[in-house]
Amino acid sequence: MSEERGICVRDVAAADFIEAYAEHLKNSDKFELPVWSDTVKTGVFKELAPYGDDWYYIRAASIARKVYLRPGIGIGMLQKWYGGGYRRGTRCVHFRKSASGVIRSVLIQLQEMRVVEPLPDGGRRVTTVGQQDLDRIAGSVFRAGEEDEDSDSDDE
């Protein structure tokens, strides 16, 4: 019998955590969808706005996870992370950064929720309250994954 240890964001799969935290943000009354979210592109290299209705919550969950894993990360580094290839017709592809306005608006809302805080020398980090919140959700994702594995092994 192993002793119980705390589950953090690093212990769960990224896709599972982002999906669960996006659902948490969607159900939260503190996190609001901006009015421009249905028309804005996420970068100059994109042709259209995202199709999904809750893409903003998914991006916010992904940004919160990134800030958790890399304290001190700023808008510029997140722009690079979410950037992509700008296909220019017959000319060669060039890398372009993602739209900073989307990232900035997400970080401002997470800051108002007390999940992240700015650092004095630039960048942002997760607050202790935000870390508890993210770890709690990671723990629920981890336990849900264990229950799925247990039910799969019972079927065999």
UniProtKB/TrEMBL annotation:
Flavoprotein is among the record's keywords: no
The UniProt record lists the keyword Lipid biosynthesis: no
Keywords assigned by UniProt, alphabetized: Ribonucleoprotein, Ribosomal protein
GO biological process: ribosomal small subunit assembly; translation
Gene3D superfamilies in the record: Winged helix-like DNA-binding domain superfamily/Winged helix DNA-binding domain (1.10.10.10)
Superkingdom per UniProt: Eukaryota
Recorded GO CC terms: cytosolic small ribosomal subunit
InterPro entries per record: Ribosomal_eS19, WH-like_DNA-bd_sf, WH_DNA-bd_sf
Annotated GO MF terms: RNA binding; structural constituent of ribosome
SMART domains for the chain: Ribosomal_S19e
Pfam families: Ribosomal_S19e
Family of the protein in this entry: Belongs to the eukaryotic ribosomal protein eS19 family.
Annotated protein name in UniProt: 40S ribosomal protein S19
